[in-house]
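4.2 Preliminary Data

To establish feasibility before requesting continued support, the project team ran the inverse folding procedure on a target of 221 residues. The structure was first converted into the token representation described in Section 3, and no sequence information of any kind was made available to the design step. The complete token record follows.
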């Protein structure tokens, strides 16, 4: 059985889950405790996602998805996928933290939407959420500076328009009539912001994006 060690708030974890959901590959999820990460004691790697496939341990979302596709799913791969994957990992994903964690109050609210119950008690979950809400706006601000993000909302909309115009390019999905590997990656990263108003606003502004997103959501979770 495949076991995915994750944070439910992590866009890279959702990238893996979207692929697994779409390809109907059975898996189990273990929610990792942010402070201590004791669930990852079996490896020296202390970031998520981590995938265990029996004795095999895979890290980093791109490598995990490639492994899963090669071994289990066999979705077609085309020459443009590598460039689009780099865009997802190095451009698209960086707009999410400033949008999700612009300040402590909004961060606390949004963390409440994605934090799972896990094994910890209500008090510990509240404290983890509170500490996260204090830390993540600082992380988001550093990311804005590092990647020269001036206006996250506008630049995010521009990024989604790029995906619609050049990725979908008039098709229902990047892969054509049915989703493919890159559809799962783009959707998965965005899915981590579901219910926070960010994607809803994007869909209202860009209906073609909204149709694609909702179609993927029905198949990828």
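Position-by-position output of the design step:
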């Amino acid at each position: 059985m495949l076991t995915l060690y994750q944070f439910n708030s992590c866009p890279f974890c959702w990238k893996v889950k979207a692929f697994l959901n779409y390809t109907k590959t059975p898996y189990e999820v273990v929610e990792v405790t942010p402070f201590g990460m004791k669930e990852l004691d079996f490896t020296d790697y202390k970031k998520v996602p981590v995938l265990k496939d029996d004795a095999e341990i895979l890290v980093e979302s791109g490598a995990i998805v490639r492994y899963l596709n090669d071994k289990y799913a066999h979705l077609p791969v085309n020459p443009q996928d590598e460039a689009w994957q780099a865009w997802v990992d190095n451009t698209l994903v960086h707009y999410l933290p400033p949008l999700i964690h612009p300040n402590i109050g909004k961060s606390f609210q949004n963390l409440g939407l994605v934090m799972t119950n896990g094994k910890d008690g209500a008090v510990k979950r509240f404290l983890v959420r509170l500490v996260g809400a204090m830390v993540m706006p600082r992380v988001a601000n550093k990311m804005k500076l590092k990647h020269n993000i001036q206006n996250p909302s506008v630049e995010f909309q521009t990024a989604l328009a790029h995906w619609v115009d050049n990725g979908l390019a008039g098709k229902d999905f990047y892969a054509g009539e049915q989703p493919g590997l890159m559809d799962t990656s783009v959707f998965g990263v965005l899915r981590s912001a579901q219910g926070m108003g960010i994607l809803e606003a994007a869909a209202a502004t860009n209906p073609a994006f909204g149709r694609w997103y909702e179609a993927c959501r029905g198949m990828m979770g």
